[in-house]
């Protein structure tokens, strides 16, 4: 009921004549967690389900978590120490996807793609994409390798991600004693609609590895194509790409700065608009990136014109509103919301919200304009999950 009333409110606001009021302020709710210090919301769908991760008191291991009407549920793991819902998941039928470590040792010493999303014990175990439904978590298959990743799901039964093959790719960074680089090739995949179905998507000519990160209800998929490298982006993200519903791949031309790395879509809406971040040619580390939106009609548009822009877009809704975060003048991260009419708005600017803390991440946005993200670390060392709702 709360979700329905909220949507009616937003619909009424949209009916007001343009210019009748300023950009709306937001009400911020801090969602209930399990008492741990590291918590984050990464996804919100139109059924008012928030997903992300939480920790428990005295424990920094992350567990994938959902919030339904504000109530948290720990989804557990596939036997290993960590799991997470790391990307926006738009399925409305009780299906959640993410990543989880297993209790199987990683045979090649790879960090794999999951390592960047966990705080402790991030390497040493194989990691698999999971689907959680009906109260159970199950692992998704690979393409013959050890590791996999699930990032997004639509309402057609499709899940997207990337999975290792058993091919040793010479463009991988490599692993060995004391190292944790990548060894095996990995490919963008669609899982489903069958329980164990997996299908690799094609790469751009000349590329050897890649990843699918998001899928919409029309079956359009966005992701990256490039070299194997580290399996966490960089030169794997040489090209931001779009696959149509038949699996044909197109370079969407994000690397216009140009930079041959970190050109990474993160989310796609049901109109086929893509949001993400592009690498900066001056910084191959990926510490400097630039938030963008890509549309079929207009191509790539960067969300900030600031000469010192350092921003990342993380979510988009069907109205074309984009959320993300940027490095503010104080050197800290600030969450933002962007639309074509008002541009980029710092969620910490005066009058933006009724929240007294700092919103450092805005990670996803639903079709009612509700944002989910994370607070700065407070005086007691806690990072909180925030649900940010537009009000008149």
| Radius of gyration over all CA atoms, rounded | 20 Å
What is the average of the pLDDT values? 93
Low-confidence stretches: 1-21
Annotated CATH topology = Neuraminidase
- Compressed to H and E, one letter per element, the order equals HEEEEEEEEEEEEEEEEEEEEEEEEEEEE
Helix/strand structural class: mainly beta
β-strand amount: 35-45%
What's the number of helices? 1
Q: What is the number of domains?
A: 1
CATH superfamily: TolB, C-terminal domain
| CATH hierarchy: architecture | 6 Propeller
Please describe the biggest sheet, giving its number of strands, its sense, and whether it closes into a barrel: 4 strands, antiparallel
- How far apart are the first and last residues' alpha carbons, in Å? 19 Å
DSSP strand count:
28
Percent helix: under 10%
Report the top-level CATH class.
Mainly Beta
Overall geometry comes to: globular
In the sheet with the most strands, the strands line up as 1-28-27-26
């Amino acid at each position: 009921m709360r979700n329905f009333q909220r949507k009616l409110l937003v619909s009424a606001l949209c009916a007001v004549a343009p210019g009748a009021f300023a950009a709306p302020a937001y009400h911020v709710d801090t969602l209930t967690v399990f008492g741990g210090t590291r918590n984050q919301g990464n996804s919100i769908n139109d059924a008012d389900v928030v997903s992300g991760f939480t920790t428990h008191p005295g424990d920094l291991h992350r567990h994938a978590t959902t919030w339904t009407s504000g109530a948290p549920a720990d989804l557990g793991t596939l036997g290993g120490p960590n799991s997470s819902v790391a990307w926006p998941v738009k399925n409305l039928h009780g299906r959640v996807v993410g990543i989880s470590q297993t209790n199987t040792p990683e045979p090649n010493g790879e960090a794999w793609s999951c390592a960047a999303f966990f705080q402790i014990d991030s390497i040493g175990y194989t990691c698999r994409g999971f689907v959680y439904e009906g109260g159970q978590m199950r692992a998704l298959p690979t393409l013959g390798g050890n590791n996999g990743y699930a990032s997004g799901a639509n309402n057609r039964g499709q899940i997207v991600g990337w999975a290792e093959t058993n091919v040793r790719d010479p463009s991988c960074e490599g692993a060995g004693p004391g190292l944790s680089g990548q060894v095996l090739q990995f490919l963008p995949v669609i899982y489903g609609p069958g329980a164990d179905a997996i299908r690799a998507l094609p790469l751009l000519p000349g590329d050897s590895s890649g990843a699918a990160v998001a899928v919409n209800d029309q079956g359009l998929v966005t992701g990256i194509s490039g070299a194997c490298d580290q399996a966490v982006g960089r030169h794997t993200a040489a090209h931001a790409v779009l696959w149509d519903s038949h699996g044909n791949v197109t370079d969407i031309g994000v690397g216009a700065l140009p930079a041959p790395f970190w050109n990474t879509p993160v989310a796609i809406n049901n109109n086929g608009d893509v949001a993400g971040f592009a690498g900066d040619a001056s910084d191959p580390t990926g510490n400097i990136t630039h938030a963008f939106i890509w549309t079929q009609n207009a191509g790539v548009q960067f969300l900030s014109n600031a000469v010192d822009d350092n921003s990342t877009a993380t979510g988009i809704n069907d109205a074309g509103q984009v959320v993300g975060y940027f490095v503010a003048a104080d050197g800290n991260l600030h969450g933002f919301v962007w639309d074509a009419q008002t541009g980029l708005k710092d969620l910490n600017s005066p009058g933006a919200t009724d929240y007294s803390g700092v919103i450092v991440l805005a990670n996803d946005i639903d079709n009612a304009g509700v944002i989910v993200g994370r607070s700065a670390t407070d005086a007691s060392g806690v990072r909180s999950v925030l649900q940010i709702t537009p009000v008149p």
